[in-house]
UniProtKB/TrEMBL annotation:
It holds the Pfam family POR_N. This is 2-oxoacid:acceptor oxidoreductase subunit alpha. Signal peptide: none annotated. InterPro entries: 2-oxoacid/accept_OxRdtase_asu (IPR022367), PFOR_II (IPR033412), Pyruvate:ferred/Flavod_OxRd (IPR050722), Pyrv/ketoisovalerate_OxRed_cat (IPR019752), Pyrv_Fd/Flavodoxin_OxRdtase_N (IPR002880), Pyrv_flavodox_OxRed_cen (IPR002869), THDP-binding (IPR029061), Transketo_C/PFOR_II (IPR009014). Residues 22-212 form the Pyruvate/ketoisovalerate oxidoreductase catalytic domain.
Length: 630
């Protein structure tokens, strides 16, 4: 055995932790990604867990995974397949090996591959590696359970508590493999278990044991690896999830607007973490309420908006269905409200822990009457902060409810985020009543340029008014059933949203002479950007236009999308964005790449499909909807 292992420098690596839902894979992956972000690496993560509350131990349906992609520079996706797979039991190996590259290093807990474990995982024999055609030379079979028990035998912990620390041994081994500082892990665990110091110390002991196991045995690998951060931008960084970034964006907007922040919410996967995070910040004046149902949550937020707060409500697709009546009330009352929709697999209860983009048309059109509402789609975990901030700015400055679309992929995923300075964020100026309107205020008189009404709050002397769900006269604010007035009010509400200025649509890549323009929206940005980069490396001219503002669309959208001979719209639904663009742009007939698998797009796979479009290996037989789906 060599005295010293070679340390190889890598530009990027993908690690996937997998095991039972109770094995702590999400925590191990989160710590590894946080440590990597702390040292300046770019990261992108993908928590992949089942909807079962607790599937039977060792079962195939109960496997939970956490994938993290670490790079020396910016990282756009969690990676198609992993370079290192940690499988804590037989079921994890059976279900997760398909996510590993052919030459991936496989770390297993050899103690969890007994006859009973193999039977639960539906292996036909004891030769599980042979059955799966895995090269044994790529497998690090470590007796993790035994070594954790030995490490904590004098800790006074019971057997159940000891076994919960197995994930930390695997984490320590991975930290050794990639030359991560154990001191950073220690710091994380001390903060995580600040109220349980004995638990923190036990986990730290196990992390060190895993690290030392790798260092002392060289863990049957030819080398260890280092990923240097060569393109550091000075600043303070943290590893942040999309849900936490959304919460921070709401708080930052409230500070810039000088308002209290109110969130009315009902717990629902995968949006609940926004409520949990905001509930921690009472010291900043944040008010949160967990309502009895979705409609009550949204209605309470409307009340808060009427009272003069920055109001928000958070949910997922099923909750949007239930909130729609209250959302319509916010539209006709023209009150500032931010509705956060963390999309998940549907229809109905569907796939609660998986990700889709299938709520787009629902948030645009899923209400009775003409009910226009701005829609913004965040493009990454860190962009959730900016998108939430801009949703608040639009809501307050244009007195309208705004939908912020994220999804399970970016809401639960994380990335390295450079903390912004509050005073460098855009100013927010709520569209308040004017002094000269005192004692002659009417709630639906408007700014003639923006068509935005003026916001008065209850208790302001001289601005008494009534809002409600019945149509009002545009001049007096009294209830009106006059047909001409209703036609006028519908057009005013529509025109107000249409006049909101949003940034122009930017084109990345070969913007001037691309053979193919890729179009997407929201969270697919990283995968589509990576696919574009791969195609350009193959010698093709390709561009990408990713929509963040869906309603209103950027003013240059039609000009951009009709500039190219071939356009493909790629989305995680069955063509909702493509349908919207067909409506808004005369003669627009794009190719469509539609996927609804509950999983992120595969960069290499979609790049190959796009290449076939460029090379005319995929032909459209006509201009109908179905003929252009690839």
């Amino acid at each position: 055995m060599m005295a010293e292992l070679e340390v190889k420098e890598l530009e990027a690596v993908v690690v996937r932790f997998s095991g039972d839902s109770g094995d702590g894979m999400q925590l191990a992956g989160n710590i590894f990604s946080t440590v990597s972000a702390t040292v300046g690496n770019g990261i992108s993560t993908f928590p992949d867990y089942p909807a079962d509350i607790r599937a039977p131990h060792g079962s195939l349906t109960g496997v939970s995974g956490y994938q993290v992609h670490i790079g020396e520079g910016q990282v756009y996706t969690p990676g198609d397949k992993c370079d290192v797979l940690v499988a804590m039991n037989a079921a994890a190996l059976k279900t997760q090996y398909r996510h590993a590259k052919p030459l991936a290093t496989i770390i297993i807990d050899a103690d969890s591959f007994g006859p009973a474990d193999l039977k639960k995982a539906q292996f036909a024999s004891d030769d599980y590696l042979g059955e799966m055609k895995i090269n044994p030379d790529h497998v690090v079979a470590c007796p993790i359970t035994t070594m954790v028990k030995d490490c904590l035998q004098d800790s006074g912990m019971d057997n159940k508590a000891i076994l919960k620390c197995r994930n930390m041994f695997a984490l320590g081994l991975v930290c050794w493999l990639f030359n991560r500082e154990i001191s950073l892990v220690e710091q994380f665990l001390h903060e995580k278990f600040a109220k349980k110091p004995a638990v923190a110390e036990a986990n730290i002991s196990v992390v060190k044991a895993g690290y030392n196991y790798g260092a002392n045995t060289h863990a049957s690998v030819p080398a260890t690896y280092r990923i240097e951060s060569k393109h550091k931008v000075p600043g303070r960084y943290m590893d942040i999830t999309g849900n936490k970034a959304t919460a921070y964006g709401l708080m930052a907007a409230a500070e810039r607007a000088g308002l209290k922040l109110y969130l009315g919410s009902y717990p629902i996967t995968p949006a609940t973490d926004i409520l949990h995070e905001l509930a921690k910040h009472k010291s900043m004046g944040v008010i949160t309420m967990q309502a009895e149902d979705e409609l009550a949550a949204c209605s309470s937020a409307i009340g808060a908006a009427f009272a003069g707060a920055l109001a928000a409500t958070s949910t997922s697709g099923p909750g949007i269905c239930l909130k729609s009546e209250a959302m319509n009330l916010a539209v006709i009352d023209e009150l500032p409200l931010v509705i956060i929709d963390v999309q998940r697999g549907g229809p109905s209860t569907g796939l609660p822990t998986k990700s889709e983009q299938t709520d787009l048309l629902q948030v645009l059109y899923g209400r009775n009457g003409e009910s226009p509402m701005p829609v913004i789609a965040a493009t990454s975990p860190t962009d959730c902060f900016d998108a939430a901030f801009m949703a608040c700015k639009i809501a307050l400055e244009h007195l309208t409810p705004v939908v912020l679309l994220t999804d399970a992929f970016i809401a639960n995923g994380s990335a390295a985020w450079k903390l912004p300075k509050l005073d460098e964020l855009p100013e927010i100026h709520p569209h308040r009543v004017l002094e000269n309107q005192k004692f002659k205020y009417s709630p639906y008189r408007r700014d003639p340029e923006s068509l935005v009404r003026y916001w008065a709050v209850p208790g302001q002397e001289g601005y008494t008014h009534i809002l409600g769900g019945l149509e009002k006269d545009g001049e007096t604010g009294t209830i009106s059933t006059d047909p001409e007035n209703h036609h006028l009010m519908d057009n005013l509400r529509f025109g107000k949203v249409a006049r909101i200025h949003v940034p122009d649509l930017e084109v990345e890549g070969d913007a001037d002479d691309a053979d193919l323009l890729i179009v997407g929206f929201g969270s697919t940005y990283g995968h589509l950007h990576a696919a574009m980069a791969e195609l350009r490396r193959r010698g093709h001219k390709v561009a990408l236009a990713q929509l963040k503002y869906i309603n209103p669309l950027p003013a240059n959208t039609a000009e951009v999308l009709t500039r190219y001979k071939k356009v493909v719209v790629a989305e995680q639904n069955l063509g909702q964005l493509a349908a919207l663009l067909r409506i808004r742009i005369n003669g627009f007939t794009p190719y469509q790449l539609d996927r609804v698998k509950g999983q992120p797009l595969r960069t290499h796979r979609i790049a190959t499909i796009f290449e076939n479009i460029i090379l005319d290996k995929i032909h459209a037989n006509g201009d109908t909807f179905t003929s252009r789906i690839v």
